[in-house]
Amino acid sequence: MKRFTTLLTLVAVLALASAMAQPAALPEGERFDDPVAFSTGSNGESLRAMLTALARSIGLTPVVDGVPDRTIVYDIGDPKPFRQVWDLVLRLNDLVFVLQENDVVVIGTSESLARLRSSSASDTGERTFQRFYRVNNDIDEVATILRRAVPGVSVETLPGTNALVVVGTDDQQESVATTLAEFDQPADIVQLEQRTYFLSNAQAANLAATLQSTTILGTEAGNVLDTFTVVPEPRTNSIIVTGTATAQRRISDLVAQLDEPQRQVNIQVRIQEITKRTAFDLGIDWSGGFGSFTAQIL
Q1: Which of 7, 16, 110, 113 suits a disulfide with 74, CB 3.0-4.6 Å?
Q2: Is the pTM of this model over 0.70?
Q3: Which residue ranges make up each domain of the chain?
Q4: What is the per-residue pLDDT for 121?
Q5: Fold for domain 193-258?
């Protein structure tokens, strides 16, 4: 059966914790002093789950395989500094931890972490040790790459975490770190910008449709650097474009080309107001005469 642990009040916890063995101290750093909340419902929560959430709240990658499977019921009241909450929870559950420089924190009992703190001898007589690595990409693929790139090294994935446990010599661990630095780079973060283009001649809806269907941006397969969206705003005759800086520069050039005024034919019309008599006088004067007789045809 699972063991139930109850924390009555924060004052009682402080008194009890002061009499217990001190776990390893956390290093200096602002994040370790950030206030965090730590409380469970009346029915309790898994100790592993609570420690995992607590560690991840400040950017650590926890490894909790060595944490006993028990249920806890805690309520520390208002948020307290992470350092204080961390020490209290570990003391109350007789746990220790090892924090590595890559922000992987291994939590467990003293017995479960004994092999992590001590070295052993390999078949070749070289001393080996265990180290945890946090990875950015698919954990199984990274483990496969390491096994192929560093012969003789032991690489295991940790379920529920994005971390690997590697057992090897100093040289092997150095090779693992070099391989990870080369092949396990975090994915690029694409920064998007939003701009509004006010049109003078083109219609917003028509221009938006043209831009969305154009291939002039020259996107490549799998390349998201030129991703963009265009939304027309008919009320102000403008388009709202969201995309990368590269896309914005190219769209700006396109808008300047497509928003030019269309050529028009200039027709001038003059309306002249005349009298009815003037209209009758219009015509050709065919006047002529013979002796005393004259005639005029208009």
Answers
A1: 7
A2: no
A3: 4-101, 119-183, 193-258
A4: 41
A5: Ribosomal Protein S8; Chain: A, domain 1 (3.30.1370)
